[in-house]
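Quick question, first post here. What does this chain look like in 3D?
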Amino acid sequence: MRTGQVLCLPVQRSPNARARLSRGDETQTCGWAALRPNASALSHKRLILSRRSNLNSYGAFGVPADGHDLCHARCAEFGVRLRFIQPVLANLPRLSLGAPMPDSSLSDAPTPMRLRVGDGTVDLATREILMPGARGPRRVTPKAIGVLRMLARAPGAVVGRTELLAEVWPDTLPTDDVLTQAITQLRKAFGAGSVGAEEGKRYIETIAKGGYRLNVPVEVLASGPAPMPQPTGGLTTDPAFAATPLTPIASQVDARPRSVVLQRGLWLLATAVLALVSLVVGGLWATFESAGGSEPAMAIAPGPAPVSRPYRLITSATGFALSPSLSPDASMVAYSASGRGGAAQQSAILVQTTSSAAPRALSRPPQGALDDLPAWSPDGREIAFARWEVDGACRVLLVSANGVGDEREIARCDGSDLLSFDWLPDGSGLLFGTMTGEGDRTRLRILDPVGGRWRNIDYAGAPGDIDYAPQVSPDGRWIGFIRNPQMGDLWRVSVAGGVPQQVTHLNAEMRGWSWAPDSRSMVFGLRVDSEARLYRADVDSGTVVDLGIEDAQTPSVSARTGMMAFVHRRPQFGIYRVDWSSGDWERLFMSSGRDSQPTLAPDGAQMVFTSDRAGRFELWWGRLGAPDSLRPIEGVRPDTRQAPAWSPDARRFLVTALDAANEPMILEVEPASGRTERLAVPGLRPAQAVYGPPGILYLVEEDRATGGTSLVAYDRATWQAKGRIEDVSQVRYDPVRDRVLYTRLDANGLWDAAPSLDSASIIRLSEAVPSRWRYRSWSLAANGRLAYLDATPACWTRLSRYQIENSALVESGVECVDPLTRSTTNGFSVGGTYSYVSLASDDGSGIGFMPMPASPAAHDGIVKWLISLRKKFS
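> Answer (accepted):
Ran it through. Tokens below.
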């Protein structure tokens, strides 16, 4: 290399896919930078340049620290992208913040076994982390140590979540949960001893919508005698071992230890045995090889492999894209779109191709109107949709899919707060679900869009059942729907009517669904912890399988092609204290996660809420005005459907949580001491528990078989039932009036009963508030007053205050908390002149598009076992 010149050298890949750098004859000038006379003592930047093509890559050396910008500018002309790695000199073993840990994917040099990470010592072989002042080292899982390896390669740099998942979990389809659990485990290990839990959390920082960053220095520690020199076969690209020569590939193969050869022989024997097994189970071995079992153990890419999600986001505008509907051939998608800020108060139906082309407006809503629920006709010529106008009018309209011609009204839905419909397979009519509003229609009905005639479907159902989002199966035999979507399940009934069959037994918050093309399964969105995910349910067995798609809901599947569109939404929620009198806001307990269900204690000094701020969904407790008091309640995975309930003395609270089998249970928590006790409640599926008069607990219980619920008053000493009310969705006890307040699944409104739950004592306080869909959006203050949180087109987060007078709810004030920001709907608190609300700090959604994932084959578990077995032998 000539002084002052920077050269780009070809990178030759060895057969085992490790990157080897050689000084090729063909070089390209990348730029000029003046080298100082004492160039050998300079700290240099090293560049790894990768062509967009996978065939060639280029490496550049000798770029001084103050000259990389010039090289970047020159090399940009070659159409390459740069990744800067800052090495240290061979005689400086310590890696400062921003320097990478030795990366076995970039070098043939030996991987270090011991590291100093901040104040801790990490033994990579034993997976142990020892912190100063700790009683001993803490061992973490292999996946956690794999995550730490990646972060330590580039301390101070952000490593993306997808990159971490792809490298540490390469043979699986993991969810974010496994990564967040690994990060939490590392933070706890680094927080042991005198370092402290809070400082341990700062070791690894969460970067919102990015990934994670290691914020402490990393040092490679000696781990045994130095290796014997080997013949030089190339130049290492690993800066921590820059002086270590590389052994040629042939030498490595010939010099393998005898034990390795023996292991290879054992592997061949095991392969023969497993091949015989594969003949019995139907070619499992071939499946195993195609799943990655034939990948060489030493084959490592020269950098992080490109990560590809199973879906593409085909919309890119800011704001919200909702309710996707695919055309019959899946070449087009229609959806409801609204912007941010003031633009969120109006929405229109847009249509675009599924290849990410620019959309075109299909509907023409008047000012302030909301167009939603597009449904593509089976012949692809028309789209039906609903329009809600500012005066409360609701209409179902029909428009040509190419946008030519006027919109045509085919039905009215005035005052409706629940509306759903879809086309019949032959296009002869529209199938409607329960329509609430003026003159509730509680049955499935079919509308003839030409003649305007309605036809009821004759099928069995209990009074008050709400059947939502009906769709006819692709084979034309079944109508599927969600019954009671607040705490609902998937059902199906013959198109000729009859007795419906319950498909799932989840009693969960459903987020849209669609038939699979085979008519034998249903794809649906489900609220789980702090996110919504997509699942697939077999209609015969009821088996539910996670499709591995996070932050996804409202699927639309094309029966003809098997392609699927869905809503991808990843909001961030923070807890805010809003002063009713002044309108001032204050955010509490800052985080980059999703904080919700703020529940204020009766003393007004404590709060408990749910959050995924530490990576996994947990229950958190803290004192207002003392951010340092905030901590998670260990071992509690809360159920998001119901908020915790405090005891009158503010010393304990009850919370519905999920056990290891994902079954609900009731826990009593004493936050000051951290004591947690599981209550031996008689109900099999408790949904909510609150304190009543002394010695009494009120439980809302679910009936898995029928999907119904019951409110039961229990004597806590004997667990004997003292009273019962059916079809209750949420309960509160008012100690000021010594009355029980509750909402119902089958109707809007609020009810009041005596502590004994005697049916003769029941009074309906309101016929409108809360609505059945916002049954969790009301709060009871310590003084017996109520608050209700809802949304209108003019105010996305509106708070109304009520007091009970003469056996009725009387409104005492209304405030628009935020006209443009959405709130959560699963709980808030009031106290004094303050309300504590979870509001979206960052929100928006797009449309994802992908082939519908196939149902896992029965032998998938065996294939995964074969993969793990081969890894052990290799």
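The mean pLDDT is 77.
DSSP finds nine helices and 63 strands in the chain.
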